[in-house]
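Listing S7. Sequence submitted for prediction.
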Amino acid sequence: MQQIPLTTIREILQATVQDIPEHDLDEMAIPSYTHSNPLIRWLMWRRYRVIERMAELAPDENVLEFGCGIGLFLATLSGQGRTVSAIDLFPQFARTLAERMQLQVAFPATLDQVPDASLDLIVAADVLEHVDDLPGWVRRFGSKLKPGGRMLVSGPTENIAYRIGRFVAGFSGKGDYHHTDIDDIRRVFEENGLRAVRGVNLPFAVPPHLFRIFRFEAG
C-alpha cells in the first residue's frame, strides 16, 4: 500500500481546487484526508489498506476505481502491468496526482466508455451511498466485470456510533448527500446477481462499526 504524504495532498489541493463548492469537496471526503486529527486520517487510510488486502491484486489485470476522488488509491492500483482507469465527477484532482507521480491511468468520462466484460476488478470506496438509482448502477457494474470478476465496496454504517463520530470530527450536518448505507448497498448488490463473499468491519472487528467493506463477485 502506497500512502500519499499529507503534504503532497495539500499541495495538489492548493494547485487544483477552483470553483468547486464545499459540498462537493465534502462528498469527496477531502476534509477527512486532510483533517487535523490523525486518528481520522488513519481510519481513512486503514480503509484502503483493507480494500487492497481483500482485492487480492494480481499482475496484468484491468482495474477501475469508480469515484476515485483525489486519486489516493491509484498509486497502489498501478504497476505490475495492470491497466488502471478512474472515474470521478471532478477528475482534475486525480489527474494532477497521476501526472505528478507519473502513473499510467486512463480517465474515461463515464462508465459507458468502459467496454462490457472487460474488468477484473472495480473499487468503489465510500461513493455508492451518494448515487441515485443504485440498482441501475449495480447492474451496469455487473455488465463491465468479466466472469468471476470482483468488486470491492466500502461505505458508512450510518449507525449511532457513526453519527457521533461525524459530530466529533466536526462534520455534523454534512451527511445529507448520503442516500443509503452499506447494508442497503449490500442488499442491492445481491439482489442484482453480485454475491458478497467476504465482509470486514472497521475500524476493528469488534463494535462500534463505522464502516463495512464487502467483496462481491460476478457469477
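Caption to Listing S7: primary sequence and predicted C-alpha cells for the chain studied. The chain has a mean pLDDT of 89. The radius of gyration is 16 Å.
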